[in-house]
């Protein structure tokens, strides 16, 4: 039997995998079990921030592995404290809770928002507005936060207290606030799984002002767009707004699991001992990995993201078989004339990995993908689209 047979037999049937087993890689190239190489524009869904086998990242991880792999949160640990300091200094947020995934980072944000509403306005202020077509995770509560019925249907009843506003529609937010006791509004500045749809700058500015006036918390889900992918350190920084809570995960650890929930001035003291926790949260290896990633997300890296982004947008603008290109930085959605599934399969044949978002082809390359490899991959993609 092969890896594929074992997987189909023994791994829970939750994933429709591509017919590919990845075994190794270097930089933005991944290799399958037959030694075939692919230029990777997916990075394991925006996780491998600096590609595969990055020497600095490996150095940071292995150095920490040589010291201690896990401490629990019963004790202090240097990588956890240093990473929290770094995140706060780079964002102006005040405190950080560490977990292990995007869904958990959002769970922490949701609990903080409810506790804040309860403390500040009263126990009935528990409702959170999220946006239609959003994606916030797979736990029962983050599914409830996800504004897409298709994710809900088989798992009712979900956690109560979520209402859904039309994206880019301020009147809808105001209506929902009038009808409910709202403590927070939660959004992705670019809806990733929903089809790589950026919110408008005007909407975000209005939303931030409205939230400020009404003491409603602004919660930015930066799980996918965060950590340099937008061309700024966090996506919201492109819009000049200041969220009260920021959740992030995916690219933060550069390939190791970590979630972080950044708490701003208003909610920095909302949590007290015993109210939240995680056995693995703040794991020293994951934190050492994240410190290594974060310390490299400097002006130079972010300029490189913008440059690569500009190249992709320009190369695909008006290209044959391409209907539209949306996104921000190196999170890009392409609407193609051919079905996205066909484009993805044929790109794979030709040695380029891209993924899907709704009916679009999604690209999430490493932030440091070499320009030559990016050009080769985009040219192949264009040829496939034009067929
Ligand atoms: C991927 C994603 C999540 C869920 O993250 P997991 O690590 O899979 O739990 C939540 N929000 C957004 C915006 C995401 O892209």
The average pLDDT score comes to 98
Q: What would CATH call the architecture of the largest domain?
A: 3-Layer(aba) Sandwich
Beta-strand portion reads 15-25%
Count the strands? 17
> Which topology of the largest domain does CATH recognise?
Aspartate Aminotransferase, domain 2
Main β-sheet description: 7 strands, mixed
By secondary-structure content and strand pairing, the structural class works out as alpha/beta
CATH hierarchy, class of the largest domain: Alpha Beta
Parts with pLDDT < 50 across at least 5 consecutive residues:
none
Q: What's the helix-strand series? A: HEEEHHHEHEHHEHEEEHEEEHHEEHEEEH
Strand order of the largest sheet: 4-12-11-10-7-5-6
* Helix proportion range: 25-40%
Q: How many helical stretches?
A: 13
What molecules are bound to this protein?
pyridoxal-5'-phosphate
- Alpha carbon gyration radius: 21 Å
Shape: globular
Distance from first to last alpha carbon: 37 Å
User: What is the H level of CATH, i.e. the homologous superfamily of the largest domain?
Assistant: Type I PLP-dependent aspartate aminotransferase-like (Major domain)
Total domain modules: 2
List keywords for this structure.
13 helices; alpha/beta; 387 residues; binds pyridoxal-5'-phosphate; Aspartate Aminotransferase, domain 1; 37% helix; Aspartate Aminotransferase, domain 2; four-stranded mixed sheet; 19% strand
């Amino acid at each position: 039997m092969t890896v594929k047979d074992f997987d189909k037999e023994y791994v829970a049937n939750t994933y429709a995998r591509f017919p590919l087993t990845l075994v190794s890689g270097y930089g933005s190239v991944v290799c399958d079990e037959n030694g075939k190489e692919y230029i990777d524009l997916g990075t394991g869904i925006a996780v491998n921030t600096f590609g595969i086998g990055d020497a600095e990242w490996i150095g940071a991880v292995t150095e920490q592995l040589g010291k201690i792999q896990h401490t629990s949160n019963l004790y202090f640990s240097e990588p956890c404290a240093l990473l929290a300091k770094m995140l706060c200094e780079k964002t102006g947020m005040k405190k950080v809770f560490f977990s292990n995934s995007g869904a958990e980072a959002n769970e922490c944000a949701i609990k903080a928002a409810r506790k804040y509403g309860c403390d500040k306005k009263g126990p009935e202020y528990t409702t959170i507005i999220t946006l239609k077509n959003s994606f916030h995770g797979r736990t029962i509560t983050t599914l409830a936060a996800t504004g897409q019925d298709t994710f809900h249907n088989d798992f009712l009843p979900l956690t109560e207290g979520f209402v859904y506003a039309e994206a880019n529609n301020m009147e809808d937010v105001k209506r929902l606030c009038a009808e409910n006791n709202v403590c927070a509004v939660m959004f992705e500045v670019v809806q990733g799984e929903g089809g790589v749809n950026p919110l408008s700058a005007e909407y975000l500015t209005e939303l931030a002002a409205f939230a400020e006036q009404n003491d409603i918390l602004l919660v930015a889900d930066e799980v996918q767009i965060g950590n340099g992918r937008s061309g700024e350190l966090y996506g919201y920084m492109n819009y000049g707004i200041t969220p009260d809570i920021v959740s992030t995960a995916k690219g933060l650890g550069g390939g190791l699991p970590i979630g972080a929930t950044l708490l701003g001035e208003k909610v920095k003291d909302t949590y007290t001992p015993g109210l939240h926790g995680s056995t693995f949260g703040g794991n020293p290896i994951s934190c050492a990995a994240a410190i290594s990633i974060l310390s490299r997300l400097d002006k130079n890296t972010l300029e490189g993201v913008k440059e690569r982004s500009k190249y992709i947008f320009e190369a695909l603008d008006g290209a044959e078989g391409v209907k539209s290109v949306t996104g921000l930085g190196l999170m890009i959605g392409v609407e193609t004339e051919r079905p996205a599934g066909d484009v993805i399969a044929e790109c794979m044949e030709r040695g380029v990995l891209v993924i899907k978002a709704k009916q679009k082809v999604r690209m999430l390359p490493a932030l440091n993908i070499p320009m030559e490899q990016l050009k080769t991959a985009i040219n192949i993609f264009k040829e496939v689209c034009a067929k």
